[in-house]
Amino acid sequence: MPSRPDDIGVGFHFKFECQGAVVGYFAKMSGGGSENAVIETKMVDERGKDFVKKQPGRMKYNDITLSQGITTNMSIWNWRNQVENGDDAGARKNGSITLFDHSLQPIAKWDFTNAWPSKVTIPQFQADSDAIVMEELTIVVESSKRVPV
């Protein structure tokens, strides 16, 4: 629980880094985290009553999707090009996502390993709109965890 209201993270202010270099300041992030498959085993108790025992199975780390406004920076497209050109080993990178508070101090950080971009989405354009044009990056990770800042 936050100790003060200003300790709560600002959802629109976080940075994405790979190999120590800032890839971008994104407007939206979703996904991430981990989950276990659930293994259900049918059992019978000492009274002969059927029940299902649930145990954690194989762990999986969820994809991370990031959205940002279009800029002249081509780093995410160049990174995706590595995978498209068959260099998936070279495209794998370790990195982090850092969330900042209102005074721009880091308050939460998630590290990930062996990430590579599985998808980059071309933004939608609409002539009668003044909305920011957003591109989207989806990365897959082999592991992720929240770490102290």
Order of helices and strands: EEEEEEHHEEEE
Quantity of strands, as a count: 10
Please work out how many helical segments DSSP would assign. 2
Largest β-sheet summary: 8 strands, antiparallel
Q: Per DSSP, what share of the residues sits in E-state strands of 2 or more residues? A: over 45%
Query: Which of globular, elongated, flat, extended, rod-shaped describes the shape?
Result: elongated
What would you note in describing this structure?
This protein has helices at 75-84, 88-91; strands at 14-18, 21-26, 28-31, 34-44, 50-61, 64-69, 93-100, 106-121, 134-140, 143-147. By secondary structure, it is mostly beta strands. The chain has one domain (5-147): Hcp1-like (Pnp Oxidase, Chain A, Roll). The strands form two sheets. Strands 1, 2, 3, 6, 7, 8, 9 and 10 form an eight-stranded antiparallel beta sheet that branches. It has a two-stranded antiparallel ribbon with strand order 4-5. It starts with 13 loop residues before the first strand and ends with a strand. The mean pLDDT is 87.
SSE arrangement:
Layout: E1 14-18, E2 21-26, E3 28-31, E4 34-44, E5 50-61, E6 64-69, H1 75-84, H2 88-91, E7 93-100, E8 106-121, E9 134-140, E10 143-147
Antiparallel strand pairs: 1-2, 1-7, 3-6, 4-5, 6-9, 7-8, 8-9, 8-10
Question: What is this entry, summarized?
Answer:
The protein is mainly beta and 149 residues long. It has two helices and ten strands; from the N terminus they run ββββββααββββ.
